[in-house]
């Protein structure tokens, strides 16, 4: 089964609330076998809508990444991000 990437582009509008999200999201992602490959580092925007924060996490599978997103731990974290950020999130299966 191929691994999967969770790719998020984020503009934070409320640092305090988003900090609460980040504190809870990391453990929720790790619980599903996810590990961060990039998280808010330097970037160059070449096309599309620019977001100041970009995150890439690797999961064991697309199904595990989606289960993480839909699971209660991540949904609890996400409640802090809603209204505190503008986000685009996609999960994409890796090549074998």
From TrEMBL:
InterPro entries referenced in this protein's UniProt entry, alphabetically: Dimeric_a/b-barrel (IPR011008), DUF1330 (IPR010753)
Q: Where is the DUF1330 domain?
A: 3-94
Q: Which domain of life is it from?
A: Bacteria
The record's PANTHER family line, in alphabetical order, gives:
BLR0684 PROTEIN, PTHR41521
Question: From what organism does this protein derive?
Answer: Pseudooceanicola spongiae
The transmembrane residues are none
List the protein's name.
DUF1330 domain-containing protein
Xref: SUPFAM superfamilies:
Dimeric alpha+beta barrel
């Amino acid at each position: 089964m191929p691994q999967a990437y969770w790719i998020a582009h984020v503009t934070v509008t409320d640092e305090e609330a988003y900090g609460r999200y980040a504190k809870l999201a990391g453990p929720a992602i790790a619980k599903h076998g996810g590990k961060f490959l990039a998280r808010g580092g330097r970037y160059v925007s070449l096309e599309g809508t620019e977001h100041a924060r970009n995150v890439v996490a690797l999961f064991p599978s697309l199904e595990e990444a989606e289960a993480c997103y839909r699971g209660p731990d991540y949904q609890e974290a996400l409640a802090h991000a809603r209204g505190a950020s503008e986000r685009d999130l996609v999960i994409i299966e890796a090549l074998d």
